């Protein structure tokens, strides 16, 4: 017999599901402790714990005297946030464009099946895109998507909307992990990014989850001489004490 989840976890799962399905949108008010006590037949202590943990995990924000609201995921910027490359470029006042190299249905094999926790042969979509900033290539996006998560993926025009924006519209982000590595890219990536043979690239390896399962796996290649990861982080519920402008560090040398 599978043991039932603790009541506070059931409350958390209910609220996360409401966010995932879009029933609760960013800035929407989340049921109060009193409402959760009545609607889910739990104690005030249980409701309080669920809301506290959702706050610490970044799903919601508790505003003193006003209530609890769904977090606006786009308002935070740090190295572990899932960024939309088009938004990054536009925030710099530059123009973003995309070229689609590949947009196809495949069957998961090897490391892709392992990364997405699926059986060999499971249907996935493969996207290969080049993102440009003011006409210069800045990122090669090599992304695999679980077909059952975004079944209309192949019908999308990714020269008009980025995969990140499209996937966020399918279901709000719940979890993500990423690693950043420096490497000499293969010939195809060097050609797409117009890199010299000895130039290193910055690779962001990222997986994202929805409803407890990984649904996308991506390798994001950037030319080392034209890209850097920057950001500012404040814990959930903490107000920002500095401007959103990133200090320019290009004049500093080791």
Describe the structure in your own words:
With 254 residues, the chain is of the alpha+beta class. It folds into two domains: 68 residues, Winged helix-like DNA-binding domain superfamily/Winged helix DNA-binding domain (Arc Repressor Mutant, subunit A); 147 residues, 3-Layer(aba) Sandwich (Chorismate lyase), CATH 3.40.1410. Helices cover 25% and strands 28% of the residues. The chain is built from seven helices and eight strands; from the N terminus they run αααββαβαββαβαββ. Strands 3-4-5-8-7-6 form a six-stranded antiparallel β-sheet. The longest helix is centred in the N-terminal third of the chain and has 14 residues. The protein is elongated and about 65 Å long. The termini are far apart.
Characterize this entry briefly.
The chain has 254 residues and is of the alpha+beta class. It has helices spanning 7-20, 33-40, 44-56, 85-91, 110-116, 163-170, 187-193; strands spanning 60-63, 67-70, 96-107, 123-133, 136-146, 175-183, 201-210, 213-223.
Put simply, the count of helices is 7
The end-to-end span amounts to 59 Å
Order of helices and strands: HHHEEHEHEEHEHEE
Report Rg: 21 Å
Number of strands: 8
Q: Average pLDDT across residues?
A: 82
Q: Quaternary arrangement of the chains shown? A: single chain
The largest sheet, given as strand count, sense and whether it forms a barrel, is: 6 strands, antiparallel
